[in-house]
Fold these 3 entries.
Entry 1:
Amino acid sequence: MKILADTHTHSIASGHAYSTVDENMRWAAEKGLQLVALTDHAPAMKNTACHAYFANLHVLPDKIHGVRLLKGIELNILDFDGQVDMDETILSRMDLVIASLHMPCISPGSRKENTTACLKAMENPFVDILGHPGDPRYDMDYEALFRVAGETGTLLEINNASLIPGGFRDGSRENIKTLLRLCMEEGRPVVVGSDAHFYTGIGDFAYVEALLEEVGFPPELVLNTDPQRLLSYLGKE
């Protein structure tokens, strides 16, 4: 499987990441990627980028070092009603929007509360991707998650950082396998993201690829193998 796009990366603007946009894109070019999404953390995450940072992303070129750049954001789901931390005026200008549960921004609730938070976030018309589902700290009804993702057209992310042994989302593996099996049953596409916080992590999908191979996931259902198809799905051709 040849993955040509990374839809989840962070720059130094996220506060707890360590590379510039230029460093990220230079590395992506060296790795042979064709497309990278810059998805720094939205303002509710402590010490991350401010509102003006996202409002000003338009100053970045559409290609850097020959690699297509999608100007995006990783939203924080703030409550069990699925509220997020960026206004619609800015979200409407983003190339790609991820919504995720993060411990600094929302503490885990009950299975029903955690599930409802994600379902409501996916009903937001500006949300393209549900970030790193499978985090075992947030007990979840994955069949409900899968069903509503299909109804809203939200892509489910298979996150490489979530699969790092001993990582802070350790234990995600079996939950992700459940989602992958559901997607295979219905031929539903997914996206994969490195969730890189340092440039050398961009385009690194080693743990994702091993898991996809283990479950026999069809390469054609991974949108990142075809950047043009990915852009078409996002309505960003």
Note: The CA atoms of residues 7 and 37 lie 5 Å apart.
Entry 2:
Amino acid sequence: MNIAIIPARGGSKRIPRKNIKEFCGKPMIAYSIEAAQKSELFDKIVVSTDDDEIATVAQYYGADVLQRPKALADDITPTIPVIAHAIETLNMKNLHSVCCLYATAPFVQPKYLQEGYEKLKSTQSAYVFSATTYAFPIQRAIKLKNDRVEMFSPENFAVRSQDLEEAYHDAGQFYWGMPEAWLEEKIIFAPHSTAIVLPRHLVQDIDTSEDWVRAELMYKALYENADTK
């Protein structure tokens, strides 16, 4: 038995009501629910929330709702305890795997959810999560200090880009995990985990108003007048 848990608290500060704000014609959370449904992987799709309006929208799009306690719905609560709480509360029998699917992931695609699940089974990892490559070598990153430029790694100034090791970052879409990994609150970014690498054009953090505008432009360029999702 597999379940998807979508954490969606009501107190977003930088983009108010972000989880249910309209994005290209639908509430943001609808994209995650629909991707989970289309993947045909889940016996149950659950939205963990402290917010009645989010709960109503989630149910409209076909998800179940789990009431999240206020203690797990503030600005500083990390994701893993929220997923652990949902697993413990649901107390489902024969639970094989749990996928944390973010509510603000309009680019998530069923095929990558399926690839993540297959990789979780085949590699026996604690977690399998979505990642993508950095567009620029991180070894040649710079910082501004007192309005002057410094390299984080000056020894790499003359090294060709193609000779530097490729680096990856969390794509912020989905995190498959074994139930015991969530319950033991194992960290995700560790050797017991592996990743599904997404193309960069399907990855966009949405934390600011500028991010939101960029994401909508990307979505329209990808999907308007095209049956690709």
Note: The chain has six helices and eleven strands.
Entry 3:
Amino acid sequence: MASLIVDGYNVIHAWPSLKRLMSTASLEDARDELVRRVAVMGLITGESVTVVFDAHHSSAMTNSEETVEGVRVVFTRKGHSADHAIERLAYGASNRGEVITVATSDRFQSDLVRGMGGAVISAPELERRVIEAEQEMTRRVKRYQ
């Protein structure tokens, strides 16, 4: 199985549309939009998608996790970074023999994932792939109308 792990805040800050949404609406709206958009990509590609966010403004002592539109959404516990959670997820997936891709523009994170045998795509590349998936979804919907 192929898995995509998304560095949530890294992507939000890299995509102009999400960065704008964060400043005009809220951080929660930007997170929701990111999850909604990568969910479409997961449907089209068949990849298992996980989005990881730091819990900067939370006092939670454990990671929280939920599934939204088929996307696993992970918030790290207080004092832990998304980078560490992504590394653990990528390591676990690679040990299970999964094909793993991490979407981040963080250079250090990219080097670690590549060292584990995973692939890395930048936030702009993820956006390009999401747009392609959204276009494919539109074509499929029109075909069935």
Note: The chain has a mean pLDDT of 91.
